[in-house]
Design a protein that fits this description.
Elements lengths: L4 H35 L2 E6 H13 L5 E9 L2 E10 L2 E16 L4 E7 L4 E7 L2 H17 L5 H7 L4 E3 L2 E5 L1 H4 L3 H9 E9 L2 E8 L1 H6 L13 H10 L1
Antiparallel strand pairs: 1-10, 2-3, 3-4, 4-5, 4-6, 5-8, 7-8, 9-10
């Protein structure tokens, strides 16, 4: 038993290398476990109701031209319904979409959809008879003459998405940036992709371990310099 400071100093002098080696091994194991966890993906489910509630809060209430919008989610695809008012023109639309990509992190919050079907124009009317006739004629020409679907053009006009061929890019960060609770979560967990299942969206995510351990601090508590393997190699090189 160690009963004095002299004995304690003698113990550390005798066993210092052994203690350092043991600590290095334990810290290396701990660091590797942290790295393994950071690389693991997990599923974050969002139900159809949760998504429609979010659409109401972050899209319908923010975009004046959209009077209503909701989704019906199925295995591998979804059906989007929307009622739009643009310059006195009212349109009830429906279309089938697939999710190509989903990205939600501190830098970008975006869904990328592929249009799977032509847009169904359920109703189309305006605040004047002549305008209604002109819109119907323009829609007919767009679909039959140009062989194009009007959905992307309509949604771009109201500044909701931007379109490239049959791909629609919906950036919702403009509505989320001011929500500190959501942005704080996205600093710690990032979504890399999404899949559609029956009545839910399954988002593939992984944790930002560095941000979690730093608890949002600008001071880096754990960096690559803390990796025992890196430290050990640097010591040997010296």
């Amino acid at each position: 038993m160690i009963t004095s400071k002299t004995q304690l100093d003698k113990f550390f002098a005798t066993h210092s290398e052994e203690i350092a080696r043991e600590l290095m091994q334990k810290s290396q194991t701990w660091y590797e476990k942290i790295e393994d966890f950071a690389g693991q993906e997990f599923i974050v489910p969002a139900t159809e109701k949760q998504l429609n509630d979010a659409i109401q809060k972050f899209v319908v209430e923010k975009v004046k031209a959209i009077l209503s919008m909701h989704l019906e989610i199925h295995e591998g695809w979804l059906r989007l319904y929307a009622t739009i008012n643009y310059s006195g023109i009212y349109a009830d639309l429906a279309v089938n979409l697939g999710v190509v990509h989903a990205q939600f992190d501190r830098y970008r919050q975006r869904f990328v959809f592929q249009q799977l079907t032509d847009t169904d124009v359920i109703a189309l009317y305006s605040d004047s008879y002549l305008k209604s006739k002109a819109i119907h004629a323009a829609l007919w020409f767009f679909k039959r003459g140009l062989k194009k679907d009007p959905l992307g053009m309509i949604l771009e006009k109201i500044n909701l998405v931007h379109q490239k061929d049959d791909i629609l890019y919906l950036d919702i960060g403009r509505w989320l940036k001011k929500n500190e609770k959501i942005m704080a979560t996205l600093r710690k967990v990032q979504v890399n992709h999404g899949y559609l299942a029956e009545q839910q969206l399954l988002m593939i995510a992984n944790a930002n371990i560095g941000e979690i351990l730093n608890i949002g601090s600008s001071d880096q508590l754990i960096t690559e310099a803390d990796n025992p393997a890196v430290t050990n190699n640097a010591t040997k090189a010296a």
